[in-house]
Fold:
Amino acid sequence: MDAIDLKILALLQEDGGLSNADIAERVGLSATPCWRRIRHLEETGVIRRRVALLDRDRLNVGVTVFVNIRTNQHNPEWLARFASAVDDIPEVVEFYRMAGDVDYLLRIVVPDIAAYDGVYKRLIAAIDLYDVSSSFAMEEIKYTTALPLAYVKDRSSTR
Amino acid sequence: MDAIDLKILALLQEDGGLSNADIAERVGLSATPCWRRIRHLEETGVIRRRVALLDRDRLNVGVTVFVNIRTNQHNPEWLARFASAVDDIPEVVEFYRMAGDVDYLLRIVVPDIAAYDGVYKRLIAAIDLYDVSSSFAMEEIKYTTALPLAYVKDRSSTR
DNA sequence: TATGAAACATGTCCTGA
DNA sequence: TCAGGACATGTTTCATA
Structure:
């Protein structure tokens, strides 16, 4: 992964709609080698996938809720059931196992508080939770899917 | 926005690399009307953008940290400066103003705890914060950019 | 819905370090 | 041997009727 690959990644994580020709021009390559690099980045999994990002408000899910969960069940079977229940709830868009006093953190998107209550009930119906506390976001000030590229290790040799 | 639009959105937010021809076939349209619908969804902002999602581990930012921030400054100028400082820190990928006892919530991605300390220092150097508490994620169990489509209001008439 | 021009993707082959 | 470049072919995009 050299400087040109990084440039390609920077472009594509900002605008996945760029054509190969566009990218080639911007990174100073002709179409073929650029296309080969992109394909290589996809095949080796550096580029995980390409997606369209939709507008939360237009889809009527403008409200974000963070849910802190504590549990007294700390066995793998319970977690597997929990993970699978959460996976089936499309309103849950992020789900982390945490260090510290909170065990799990969920990010949920819904139209309003009433709808959040519906998700909450689905959640506690599916799985036994010890303590659940919800915080509402008033404003989304920044949201990006673009990762920082400053920490990438150079792998020019292992290509 | 009718059922076919929803189907198009569902496909594109899962796989933004699908060609128009692919989508047309899957939603049961011929190429031209399908293409017009996609363009309309882009022009009206329902599709905000297309991006490539990269692999956190491959880019050496496998560690996620949530940062809860409390402040004693509640004026718009301070928030504007805070927002702009955060915008300049690429490690901060999400940033919300919260209701409740925490004022702001950040999600940060870094390679390790040492790197997080660097980001933390940049943050407090840029802006005056009252109370900062960090929680580390041990495991990302679910992360999706796909929004739930179940709450979309039908706008067939207003097309 | 159909047609068609232009742009694009993507394979093969060739060149030079 | 490896990365870039030229070219050829099938596909896709997108305007028009």
About this structure: Chain B touches chain A through 66 residues (CB under 8 Å). The first helix of chain B runs from residue 3 to 14. Chain B has two domains: 3-52, 63-136.
